[in-house]
């Protein structure tokens, strides 16, 4: 008998062995499948993270040693916690704001003295003080100015609630940069100073900068989550009229007793000397409307103009936005990172510009969100430039920028240089003139002090004076130098003179034209859209309430008016969706089974309006305009961007790229462009269906405003929904930009295969000749003197108009939201929405626009005369060919 035959049945060849082998095989297969699933999950996570980073939803995170990450988290989160505890309702924000309101005059004195000190230091050339004595004096005054600025900004929060956020946003980057290396100084026995480093994160300063986005992003997420939990966990913390009035009363906001726009009947229940109401109990809690000791429903909105309350409530969320923005700034300003490119900079710039579109869309729905957003945009622009200098150093940054970044930027976006210069003149022109004026004073002081010291030296030339002069480092200003490269012969300082010469040598005609064009766009979006359109919608809402119309008539009216507004190029869809939620729900609620049914109907009607408007814009407007060669040429139908859009939008189905373009783009231009491109209507309408992610929160926001009349919690949800609307609109635009860039990079052959419009190509050739002739005719040196003055006056009018409406908006317009009533305006007259200064701004805007039109007409006639005389560029080219 074989040995194998005598083995028990449990061996490898037996039943148990086979079962064991099968289990092992199954286990190996399971492990392999689990590994495959795990690898797929990791790949999916990596793809999602890459997409999120490309869309600027998550910053690119470089690996950091864990101990340093923990230390950076502590360093980063401490000021955030301190700021939130000091300036928000989550901490002692109400007490701090109350203290600022009670002593608000202190802020103006501090800021005035700060301005005087800094102006004096600049005029006296403090950067040239080299002696030990003068360096100590300079340090003392700089520290004093910084303290005065911080104190002044804190107390100015009473009148400008954004000021703490502004200071926090400007200081935080430099606070983080200061932690790069914490050192202390000791002296050796020979008296020479040495530096001992206590903390050094890395020897490479730019590597340290690349570590910062991660901790900043996590801190922003932590702050946002903490604020959301705090706001929704307790009814007392939710945003409502009760919460607003409680905060406003506590900090000492002035009630709105204006006879025209306020609540004058409530003044009898308020004691101005003690700032006390008879409808607030001893614990300073606002008594709910309906209580026996309250002020009545008529006084519920008496604090509607107090923005301090909203800022105290929303400050943690705004602080998290600051951290979120700063983390991307550090990414973009790190030249060793792949995202530190002109494309990344343009993404950030376009994101800020698109936020302006979002702000104009939300303006009439909620003034608090819009004002906070506009302040955030303004400070973000300023902070980017300051941090760039802080990261690289002024001289190093200038060198890097000139040698690397700007060269790449010019190569990719050089054609837009006149656009950027026009924007610079429109926004910073008055500041440049002020800077030159201070430079003149600075140069004058240099001459005066130089003459005084020369006179003193001639009269009292002694050895003691020479020693004293050397010790103090006198004179206090930069020494004037003669010669060809000296600054004695200039009215301005040498630096200011060189800058002035650079600006003067610009091609001023296109710069001024672009500046006026940008001003027209800003004013149309800021006045015609956010003021007049919303005034008309508010009048419609009031008419519906007064007449008591039924659901059918109101729906028909909404379709007619909504479609009419959609057909206007500058009007966004957000206010139309908002009015669907605000007006339709109230009218349809009794007839459609309650609030839920009426809300679904309002969302459906908003979607129907959008699709109907898209069809009309595409088929009626777009396709008719597309038959014009001039229109196709104007939109650049042969450009790489337009051909890329054609490739994306022509594909069937609901791709992310297609939907993001149709949703993220401005309503009227996107639909009309589809018609110009001769795209099929049905696929475009199907691709537009995901617009529900924008319509739904906007309709809900209007719904919660309506419910807020009886439910305090609804006002919080209205604010949240409006924020979601802004995020959806901004996010879809960023997604569209991402997929356009991705398609250009990956589908070059498919884009090149798109047929070129020969008629437009021929028109483009002629346009080049026209552009050459136009440049010849309108070149600044050859323009008649009266035309140059005429064009400069048009630019000045536009600058004044934009400054008035943007900086002094409250002096130009009455406070008016879509939920307001025309009867609340002075005299109950809709025209009184514009104050006297507002009419001045509109008049300057209209005058500048007319002047610009006259100039363009004059230039067109000059070009036509040049071409008729056979002196144009096209004729010259033909002669050269012959």
From TrEMBL:
Residues 1-10 have a biased composition (Polar residues). Residues 1-23 are annotated as: Disordered. Residues 27-54 form a coiled coil. Keywords: Coiled coil, Membrane, Transmembrane, Transmembrane helix. It comes from the Eukaryota. The chain crosses the membrane at residues 66-86, 106-124, 136-155, 161-179, 208-232, 310-333, 345-367, 373-394, 415-438, 444-462, 549-568, 598-616, 681-705, 717-740, 789-816, 836-855. This is Uncharacterized protein. It comes from Triparma laevis f. inornata.
């Amino acid at each position: 008998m074989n040995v194998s035959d005598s083995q028990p049945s449990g061996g490898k060849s037996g039943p148990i062995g086979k079962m064991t082998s099968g289990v092992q095989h199954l286990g190996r297969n399971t492990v392999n499948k689990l590994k495959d699933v795990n690898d797929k999950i990791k790949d999916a996570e990596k793809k999602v993270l890459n997409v999120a980073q490309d869309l600027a939803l998550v910053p690119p995170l470089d690996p950091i040693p864990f101990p340093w990450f923990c230390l950076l988290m502590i360093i980063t989160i401490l000021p955030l916690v301190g700021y939130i505890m000091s300036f928000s309702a989550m901490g002692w924000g109400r007490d701090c704001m109350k203290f600022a309101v009670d002593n608000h005059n202190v802020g103006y004195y501090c800021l005035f003295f700060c301005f005087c000190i800094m102006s004096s230091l600049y005029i006296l050339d403090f950067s040239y003080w080299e002696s030990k004595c003068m360096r100590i004096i300079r340090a003392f005054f700089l520290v004093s100015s910084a303290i005065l600025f911080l104190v002044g900004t804190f107390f100015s929060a009473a009148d400008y609630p954004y000021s703490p956020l502004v200071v926090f946003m400007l200081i935080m980057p430099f606070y983080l940069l200061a932690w790069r290396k914490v050192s202390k100084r000791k002296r050796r026995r020979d008296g020479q100073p040495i530096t001992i480093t206590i903390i050094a994160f890395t020897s490479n300063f730019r590597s340290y900068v690349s570590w910062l986005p991660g901790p900043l992003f996590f801190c922003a997420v932590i702050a946002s989550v903490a604020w959301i939990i705090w706001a929704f966990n307790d009814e007392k913390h939710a945003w409502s009229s009760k919460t607003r009035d409680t905060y406003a009363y506590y900090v000492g906001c002035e009630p709105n007793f204006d006879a025209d726009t306020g609540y004058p009947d409530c003044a009898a229940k308020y004691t101005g000397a003690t700032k006390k109401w008879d409808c607030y109990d001893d614990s300073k809690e606002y008594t709910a409307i309906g209580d026996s000791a309250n002020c009545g429903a008529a006084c519920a909105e008496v604090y509607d103009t107090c923005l301090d309350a909203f800022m105290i409530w929303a400050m943690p969320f705004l602080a998290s936005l600051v951290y979120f923005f700063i983390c991307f700034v550090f990414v973009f300003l790190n030249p060793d990172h792949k995202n530190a490119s002109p494309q990344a900079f343009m993404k950030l710039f376009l994101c800020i510009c698109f936020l302006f579109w979002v702000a104009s869309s939300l303006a009439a729905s909620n003034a608090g969100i819009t004002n906070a957003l506009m302040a955030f945009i303004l400070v973000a622009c300023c902070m980017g430039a300051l941090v760039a200098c802080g990261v690289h150093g002024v001289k190093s940054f200038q060198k890097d920028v000139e040698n690397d970044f700007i060269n790449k930027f010019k190569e990719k976006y050089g054609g837009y240089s006149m656009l950027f210069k026009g924007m610079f003149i429109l926004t910073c022109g008055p500041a440049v003139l002020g800077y030159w004026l201070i430079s003149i004073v600075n140069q004058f002081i240099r001459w005066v002090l130089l003459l005084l010291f020369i006179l003193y030296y001639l009269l009292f030339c002694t050895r003691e004076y020479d020693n004293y002069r050397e010790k103090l480092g006198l004179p206090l200003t930069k020494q004037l130098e003669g010669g060809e490269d000296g600054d004695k012969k200039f009215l301005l300082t040498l630096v200011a003179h060189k800058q002035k010469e650079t600006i003067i040598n610009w091609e001023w005609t296109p710069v001024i034209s672009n500046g006026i064009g940008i001003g027209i766009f800003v004013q149309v979006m800021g006045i015609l859209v956010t003021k007049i359109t919303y005034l008309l919608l508010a009048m419609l809402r009031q008419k519906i309430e007064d007449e008591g119309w039924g659901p059918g008539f109101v729906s028909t009216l909404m379709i007619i008016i909504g479609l009419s507004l959609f057909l206007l190029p500058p009007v966004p869809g957000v206010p139309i969706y908002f009015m669907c939620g605000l007006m339709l729900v109230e009218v349809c609620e009794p007839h459609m089974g309650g609030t839920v049914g009426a809300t679904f109907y309002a969302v459906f009607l908003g979607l129907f309006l959008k699709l109907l408007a898209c069809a009309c814009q595409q088929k009626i407007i777009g396709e008719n305009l597309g038959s014009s060669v001039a229109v196709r040429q104007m939109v650049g139908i042969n450009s790489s961007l337009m051909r890329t859009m054609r490739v994306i939008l022509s594909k069937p189905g609901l791709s992310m790229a297609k939907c993001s373009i149709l949703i993220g783009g401005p309503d009227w231009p996107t639909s009309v462009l589809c018609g110009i491109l001769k795209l099929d209507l049905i696929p475009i309408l199907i691709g537009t269906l995901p617009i529900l992610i924008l319509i739904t929160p906007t309709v809900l926001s209007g719904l919660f405003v309506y419910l807020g009349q009886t439910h305090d919690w609804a006002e919080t949800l209205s604010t949240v929904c409006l924020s979601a609307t802004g995020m959806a609109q901004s996010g879809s635009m960023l997604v569209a930009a991402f997929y356009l860039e991705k398609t250009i990079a990956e589908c070059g052959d498919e884009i090149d295969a798109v047929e070129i419009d020969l008629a437009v190509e021929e028109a483009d050739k002629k346009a080049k000749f026209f552009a050459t002739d136009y440049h010849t005719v309108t070149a600044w040196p050859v323009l008649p003197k009266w035309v140059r003055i005429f064009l400069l006056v048009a630019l000045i009018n536009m600058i004044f108009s934009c400054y008035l409406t943007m900086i002094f908006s409250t002096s130009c317009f009455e406070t008016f939201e879509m939920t307001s009533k025309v009867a609340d305006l002075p005299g109950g007259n809709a025209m009184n929405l514009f104050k006297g200064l507002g009419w001045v701004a509109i008049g300057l805007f209209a005058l500048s626009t007319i002047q610009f039109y006259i100039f363009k007409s004059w230039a067109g006639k000059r070009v036509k005369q040049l071409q008729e005389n056979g002196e144009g560029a096209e004729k010259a080219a033909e002669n050269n060919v012959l």
